[in-house]
Amino acid sequence: MTLTAPTPPRSFQEIILRLQSYWAAQGCAILQPYDMEVGAGTFHPATTLRSLGTKPWAAAYVQPSRRPTDGRYGENPNRLQHYYQYQVIIKPSPPDLQDLYLGSLRAIGLDPALHDIRFVEDDWESPTLGAWGLGWEIWCDGMEVSQFTYFQQVGGHDCRPVSGELTYGLERLAMYVLGIDHVMTMPFNDPQSPIALTYGDIFRQTEEEYSRHNFDGADTAQLLRHFEDAEAECQRLLDFAPEDPKSGKRIIMAHPAYDQTIKASHLFNLLDARGVISVTERQAYIGRVRALAKKCADAFRLTEAGKDAEVAA
Amino acid sequence: MPDLLIELFSEEIPARMQAKARDDLRKLVTDGLVEAGLTYASAGAFSTPRRLTLTLDGLTGESRPVREERKGPRADAPAAALDGFLRSTGLSLDQLERREDKKGGVTLFAVLQKPGRPAAEIVAEVLETTIRTFPWPKSMRWGNGSLRWVRPLHSILCLLVDEAGASVVPLTIDGITAGNTTAGHRFLSPARFPVTSFDDYAVKLKRAHVVLDSAEREAAIWQGATNLAFAAGLELVPDPALLAEVAGLVEWPVPLMGRIGADFLHLPPEVLQTSMREHQKFFSGRNPRNGRIEGFVTVANTETADHGATILKGNQKVLSARLSDARFFWENDLRVAKAGMGEWLDGLKAVTFHNKLGSQADRIARIAALARHIAPLVGADADVAHKAASIAKADLRSAMVGEFPELQGLMGMYYAREAGLPEAVAKAARDHYSPLGPTDTVPADPVSVAVALADKIDTLTGFWAIDEKPTGSKDPFALRRAALGVIRLILSNALRLDLRALRQVADNAFAASVKSADANDESLLSFFHDRLKVFLKDQGLRHDLIDACLAMPGNDDLTLLVHRAQALAAFLKTEDGPNLLAGFKRANAILTQAEAKDGVEYSYGADLKFAETDIERALFAALDLAQTTITPGLQTEDFAAAMSAMATLRTPIDAFLDATQINSDNPILRRNRLNLLHRIRAICSGVADLTKVEG
User: Fold this and answer.
1) Which of B140, B305, B355 comes nearest A150 by C-beta?
2) What ipTM did this prediction achieve?
3) Is residue B517 part of a domain?
4) B35 and B131: one domain?
5) Residues in chain A whose beta carbon is closer than 8 A to a beta carbon of chain B?
6) The dihedral of CA B227, B230, B232, B237: what is its sign?
7) Which residues contact A194 (CB under 8 A, 6 or more apart)?
8) Does B78 fall in a domain?
9) Alpha-carbon distance B371 to B450, whole Å?
10) Per the confidence metrics, is the pTM higher than 0.90?
11) Is the per-residue pLDDT at B114 higher than 90?
């Protein structure tokens, strides 16, 4: 596989499109973003739940991600409360995953013959998902452009086989590739388009609105209630007997319950941004979300998609 | 005598783990080989980000045959015992040797002959065990496999090389079969190639853009970086830890030099250095004329057609973004600092130090009061010490320390200056955490000393009160370090402090619900004494000498304690020392025995008029004379003088004990002599409890 150096991309969306076609060419199912508010692409059930069990899996997708505490009213050159991650998850992790990853950098115009690409230790842990893995952050000329993780455990379950996960912080990566200093000035579509749009044309106003919302607007009493509701609902859905009287099938509602986990996690992030969670309470909230994630993982492992294939020992 | 070459080739090994990993590889493999009966002449271990390598010279070609003899049961033992022995030896009855024992019975012996085994077989076993049990701090699985390694293991090179050539040691672990090939640099020379010996391996690796030896990479980085800095009129700031780390991140180091933007040069040099080191792993270049950090060196892992121009440009851009953040923090912090830091101090009310010991603000108030109390004892102005303690931790709320916790204290100094506070206050903010270990600098400025002591004594007293003492290897609040800090502050400044009283004062500052049930209990003082023993032991002062001095009054005055112990140690190094000690012990033994027997203490004072001999009278005279020096010596803590006066007693004591029967038949003489021994004991115990001294 020798790729001739492609022409440099000209816009944010072109980088996304190139990643999509690159990973499609490597055989990944190109999924769409999950339709809920999440803190990172890892929360997408295509990663969390599908990294469990023995069934092979390969998916790639863009995931809009929200980190309420990172809002800067659109003023900071590279901090946003809403941003995009590009996520690749392959189970079992292929032996040439590092090379596949480097191929994706070539595809978006970062040629390792011209740049300094480094794999720097970075162990990943998600206390809210009860998950951890080992890997690296990948540096390109001193800039962190991706995270590379071999999942060891998710939702308290050992990952067997191990999934390889790649996460690209798209704005930061694109700003580097395109040579942009402030995210809001980055061309979103082709700057030669009849209607050229920058990142700021699309997101400056929403960053302002959500920054105000996250820091001051959100009703904390209501958020707390919603958190409790999501927690209770998650448990309630998991308490159903697997046999569905209507269809006569065995249906465990692992995904709907997991949606409530995602919801609880985001509500916790909002409460955190509103500054109403003390240091000691913080750990307790994280523990509650983790308990939900574990229960959902337990439930998913009993489903068709999550169970171990029957193989002779 | 073959040579052995092993390379374990993997995805990138964390830099911080490489040094230990190469030592572990050498130890595990050589121990395993030796245990299996092989010997070798020399071993070398190497690491790069992608490989661990071991080379052994002069390995024996096969293990020595071993003859092992095992004693079994007697020939007439029950069948079960006999069967058990046969099973464990794998022999049949007729293969056992029968030997007569002394009692005329017959005992069975098994003689097992283990033939020598070829090196290849042993190497394969040892290497497999090594890989499967390798002590990585953290390891992982990958793909479908169950093998654990620090990151996915891709290939194993394992060669035995002798005159006939190189042969691969047959070995397969979890689907990885050992071979004779390796790969070069990930980007510059990715192809795999075969090797025939360690020399061939090292040479071909270098051709394939891999410098195998981390020491060679470190030297190349340092040399290259120094040259670049010199050419730019700068000097490189030494940073051995960073150098070791960077050498673990590259196989083909290429240093590149850049300049820091003019907009950032006004930032404190420590901020620039920390930001560059922590985030970017850059070396700092200092302008020798003004001490400012003006340049950086980054170390790339590759050569490019544009000689690193793109790489440098990228790094420069990342650095600018980082330093923009730092500048933003600095400027915001300056605003709060110039206004007197009140915003931060208010903020610390909301920060919990420990749920039982209150907020950081509560803690600061206690430390400030304690610093005021300590100030006059250490020669500091009480108001200045109080002020210094009140603001010393304000920087914990600053944006800069939030981003770089390791700059705590140092930023406090800069911000205290901006707040217009006296230099002694600013320095105390910087230095009050010190000393942090057994060797770093101890503050000497009185205000810093007062705050540093107050900080640590408050911490120790507080955690003692809530019974959170260190146990075994667990010391989550770093109380051992705090105690050592107090010890070093006291000793290095020769402070005369009453630690019992200071603990009382510190304890009183806590709420009634928190205070120690008994702030007089000696456990905290014992903790100090234990730390002191460890500290002094490292400095070569014997543990028993400290015990001898701990028994003396004023043992919470550590300066006095150490002063005593040092005088005692010096005395015991003189010729008279051990002899006097022996004489003392002799006298004491006789006295102690008599006292135990008679149930009295012979402390009535001996009377010269009952002295029988000249030798006895000479001892009286010698004691009288020595006491004229010893008493004032002890009073002025001139222990050396007191002990050299004691040394003059050695001859008269020895003479007395040799010539005199203490337990005389005459009860009056006996009592008088015992009282005389008591006087010897009392005089010799003026500096230390000599009964605790060994030898």
Assistant:
1) B140
2) 0.93
3) yes
4) yes
5) 77-78, 92-95, 98, 112-121, 123, 133-136, 140-143, 150, 152, 159-162, 164, 176, 278-280
6) positive
7) none
8) yes
9) 5
10) no
11) no
